[in-house]
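Render this sequence as a predicted structure.
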Amino acid sequence: MAQEKKPGRRATAEKRQQDILNAALKVFSSKGFSGATTKEIASMAGVAEGTIFRYFKTKKDILFSLIGPYVVQSLADTLDAVSGETDEVMLTAILKNRLDLMHNNIDLLRLLITEAQFHPELGDKFAELVSMKVAPVLEQFITKRIENGVYRELDPQIVSRAFFGMAAIFVAWKEFLPGDKYVRFDDDEVIKNIVSIFLYGVKKDET
């Protein structure tokens, strides 16, 4: 009988790091950033407290590791997957990616919004690690379309944020207000309408 291979040292380290991140999200969500301790995170993750500091220098580093690379990389991967498709297909894929990401990580999003009020440096770091890296991905797409004469001469930075902003308001409506008690929106319909408004506006073509 063939012996079952034991996980390598790197795989074990990556799993331990992910266990710490998963535990941190639970502790942060229940205790808040200030109230959470690395001791509690370690206990939740099933590791010694000292183990945490092998992977993260500070508690803030744990939080930023939760929000940074994946948020940007997942959008880049989505754009690669639909490269060469129509604008409608590309923008639909982008919005679906962002809405899924926000819905699937709503506890973390709530945590960041709450804690940024008391720790301005968290908001600054979020902008640096996420907002200022995500927006340029769409800005590059918009810039190319402007250069090719497809889109009007508008500021790509404003256009990209307006596009993401239309989606964000529906997340706020559903997850933070919660407006679903009054008017319930289907994500697919929201995406379809936002893409249509973004590309064609709301005024009927009079020609």
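Summary. DSSP finds ten helices and no strands in the chain. The radius of gyration is 21 Å.
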